[in-house]
Amino acid sequence: MRYLIKHGSIIDPAQRVATIGDILIENGKVVQVFDLAEMAPENEALGENIEVINALGCVVAPGFTDLHTHLREPGEEHKEQIATGTLAAARGGFTTICAMPNTNPPHDRAAVIRQVRQIARREGHVRVDIIGAITIGRQGQTLTEMAELVEAGCIAFSDDGSPVQDPTVMRNALTYASMLGVPIMSHCEETRLNAGWAMHEGVVSTRLGLPGYPAAAEETQIARDIALAELTGAHLHICHVSTAGGVALIRHAKQRGVRVTAEVTPHHLTLTDRWVLGSLAAFDPEIPPPEPVRTTGNRRGRKKAESVQHGLGIRSWLDPRILPPYDTSTRVSPPLRGEEDLEALIEGLRDGTIDAIATDHAPHARVDKECEYGLAACGISGLETALGLVLTLVHRGEMDLVHIAAKLTEGPAQVLGRAPATLHPGARADVVVFDPDHPWTVDTAHFASRGKNSPLQGQQLKGQVMLTMSGGVIVFRRGDFGKDIRTIRHASRLDGILSGE
Amino acid sequence: MQLQTSATQNAESNQERRRHVFDLDDFSRAEIEEVLDTTESMKEILSREIKQVPTLRGKTIVNMFFEESTRTRISFELAARSLSAGVINFSGRGTSVEKGESLVDTVRTLQSLGADVLVIRHSQSGTPYLVAQHFQGSVINAGDGCHAHPTQALLDLFTIREKLGHIDQLKVVIIGDILHSRVARSNLWGLTKMGARVTLCAPPTLFGAARFWQAAWPTINISYNLDEALDGADVIMALRLQKERQQAGLLPSLREYSRFFALTDERLDYARDHALVMHPGPMNEGVEIMPEVALSSHSVISDQVANGVAVRMALLYLFTT
Asked: Could you give all domains of chain A from N- to C-terminal order, each with its CATH number?
């Protein structure tokens, strides 16, 4: 099948290209990109067997890569399966996802890696890469057979939720992995500093009487791992940095030339510990009333002016007050942090300290979350809201669209040492088409993911994926998106969202 | 602090009665005063020869105590019986998850069995909010983790008002394990709303981080010196110090804690002559409070216990009928 995606606003961060034009896709590859000046010829000239997709007003970008996904299979199929998780990824615009090893059995031997890859090939909707465990059973003691795991297809190593506490084990892991040319992805948490934690340690935890996870518990571990990366010369990747201090440590390390990269989640970029207050935030005088989502006048110049009026206490039109207090959907590791952390994360993303946006998609069953706050499982089902969340940064004027797209495409590819996904002719046709202005209300009942655990239930987001293509095959399409081609025939003037950039 | 919201306005104009008592953070001053006034009427009932009125006849109140408690449970039971309600005591050991049965399932079961009011004590902060999401009747928080103990705070407020005539402008000093104290947190809301000047006094390890307390309740003072803190105090509340705090490394020794932070006869001299000494119980005599202080003429500890029944009657009467 051949496709012509017409009149989209093409963003190709790898090529530093942002233009309006058409993309021709054939045999699973991008064949040609026509920009505004030389629009593709009409269908007749392109011959038979071609579908035209009207992407007018939408962004067309390389498919996103998620460095941090929990697929739960094998072992916890009631929470997620490779089939449902990869469909959720496709709905979120992701064409490559990296599966974390927190499964049962974990990704600690070649047989498990081969099994997961086989299921992914058979049932997956998008490409699945495998992250191996650093230690056997993720116990933090004995290194896995890393070379064999890389041979079996692992692209990185992590013990994620069970961070390696012994510094010598971490040193050896980094040193050994440097031979294999793959990063160690470190979930940085000094577990002796946050025993029994339920949420970020701060004013809100003090008020709610919940045991805190101090920022220092993340920062001390980041500092340790950076020192070890410096010692070993290995590539260290910091997972889901969540604190201002962590961002500063990574920034300084990069300035010194340490091989360190970092990711941040959409929820840490947009939500704070105030979300645990839920409706009790109504009794906090600092929060201004929420702004309604504007559905008209959606040109960027105006939006910028409006967005700066938002108070810092509430992120955009997202409103924690529709949640009950202590809602377990807000429990996540690392926890939602304070306002100053959030500001530092955005700044880190802007200045290049943070390389990639990664979802830490962590689906859970209802029973894991329908319980007391301190006993609830940690995690947010994030693949299907990731784009809508990070676009709030664009709508508030804090980041531009090209930059955000780069952190979802080029950034993660660089972390993995890969050529960045691109829309250059000859590239594999992993493509996402999204409408950055489309307002929608999050309803977890419609998630493809089995995990309905999201604090965003009922929130309005702006920006939604319309179509996702993996290797030239449409793996997700919202309704009849792009099938009505009448408008493009008559489009006399294109004023896409890139005007004024 | 500005706390005007539609919820409190509703409560003030009596258009919509609250159904649950989670904490005092969403109570207005007028609402607290209404509870205290009603408590006086209830106290009168308790002084009668027949200490019972038929107000809640036919209602079923379930005391769900997932944590050890003698006085609070008995106090709620007496309050319910004085209002002629049926009382069922349900004591679960440990948490629902540990038992393998979900708390929410238990609540749904009690709903189906026809319970009207759930009184809940639980070791996990925030649990009453979860219970209320799955229960159509009223939920009253009898203490949740380190979060809140609103009935204790209300009985403390009532006792202060009863003894000193008012709460506004009084200097109240709360001493001890602030970090883990639900009593301290609920009293901070209640006392600051009623216009008291509150000083918290403890070694810094029993605050976690003092700046967070200052940010959460901006009008309070924080002190690490008990003699100074007690200067001119009208009310002194000592909190129970759990021995585990020392084992967790928060204190060098109980001996040192007692030397610098126990309420002694000598230290009482710094306070005003009419100063009240309060303690939510159970006491560790010789650790946070000396026996002679607990038994002195300043002590209103037994009044607190007695007033607890009347306060709980007032809450049941006001919010569950």
From this structure: 59-473 (3.20.20.140)
